[in-house]
Amino acid sequence: MVSEPTLSDTRERVRELVxxxxxxxxxxxxxxxxxxxxxxxxxxxxxxxYQARVRLLLTPARADATVTPTKEGAAPSLTEVTDKxxxxxxxxxxxxxxxxxxxxxxxxxxxxxxxxxxLVSVRRTPAGPDGRVDRLVVELxxxxxxxxxxxxxxxxxxxxxxxxxxxxxxxDTLARDYVRKHVxxxxxxxxxxxxxxxxxxxxxSLEAAEARLRDFGQTVxxxxxxxxxxxxxxxxxxxxxxxxxxxxGIAELTQRAQTLQTQLxxxxxxxxxxxxxxxxxxxxxxxxxxxxxxxxxxTALAARYQPDYLPLQDLERQIAQTxxxxxxxxxxxxxxxxxxxxxxxxxxxxxxxxTRAEFAALQARATAAAxxxxxxxxxxxxxxxxxxxHQDLERQVKAQEETYLLYLRKQxxxxxxxxxxxxxxxxxxxxxxxxxxxxxxxxxxxxxLVGMACAALAALLLAFLVDAGDRSFRTPEEVxxxxxxxxxxxxxxxxxxxxxxxxxx
Length: 505
What we know:
Layout: H1 7-23, H2 25-44, E1 48-58, H3 83-93, H4 96-106, H5 114-122, H6 128-143, E2 145-148, E3 154-161, H7 164-186, H8 191-220, H9 225-266, E4 270-278, H10 281-304, H11 310-331, E5 334-341, H12 343-422, E6 428-432, E7 440-442, H13 444-469, H14 476-483, H15 493-504
Antiparallel strand pairs: 1-3, 1-6, 1-7, 2-3, 4-5
Helix pairs in contact: 2-13, 4-6, 4-7, 8-12, 9-12, 10-11
């Protein structure tokens, strides 16, 4: 288990460090003096710079863009500038083409120190003027400070140069070229020409659609399509009502015919009008004459033959039958009936005939009404097709007109935007223009202070390194630790030197 260092241990370590510095004080002093002299020379060689500044304001939309292609005017922009937009614009400010234009326009020279120029000359760099310009562009990109001001839409650009006029020229040229490049990126070249061509193309399409609509109206006559459709629908309703009424009549006549047919079968066609009852003398006379003849024949045969003679027996049976017929004729009178046609039967037959005739007429009427309904429906469907085609043509005309007006507005917007761009009215405004700096700024004091601090740290570090490399014994404890022998006596370095000088004297 490792114990925590106590206060006495800390004091002992501090004492050891101070002892090292005290022992190597000559090394510390010499190295500090040499390094501080070098820091002083380096601070003195720092150039005197003049710093210029420019601030750019990025707005969501074009500032004060009051001209619009419509009557309503410009609507206020609801969008905001995001951090991504500001960072993107900051990167555009540091693009190589803008910096190259600044270097060539302002004639910037190298601002680096003699040490940096010596190191650059040792490295392999492109030869010729192009290589020098590229090197100046890289140096300008490193020295140009571009930052986004917090909680604002401002971009601040600073640049320092040994010449005040060049610092001003660099930022002024950078601001002007940046605004032009921003406009070029926001409004690509050829936008106005594109919208002009598109507007002309859709104008031709609109005229063609209007011509098709006009020809359709002249050919089909769709001016009164709605009126004709209403008339046909009303007539169709009347025809359907007539058809339903006719079908109802047919059903009624069918039921009536069935009822009349049933009643006609139940009612007889004729009825008795007169009935007379009387005897039938002709029949009685005929039967009695027949009976007399049969009895005469029996008498003749009975005189000659026996009773079991067959012809005699036949005569007996005939006589019995004739007597029975005479008895029936006596008790059954002769009935004389007079009949006539029944009026009810005749009426039913006439009504059935008329019902069948009306049924045939209603069937013919129903057939004609069905044909009329089908014809009206066909005409209505044809009118509906015409109306749909007419509406389709109207929609095409409307769509072509809206597209044409859209591109016409876009053309006007592009023309207005191009005019505003040519006048320098954009959504990027130079909020603070650069000016020629008059107060110089120098890094001599900061460089000297940093150099002195580094010299002190380097001197202390050198002292500790020299002390760590010294293998001699400095304390009795080191002798006992390294050799394992007890120390009998220890003489300070100063006392030994004093005694030796005394003896020599």
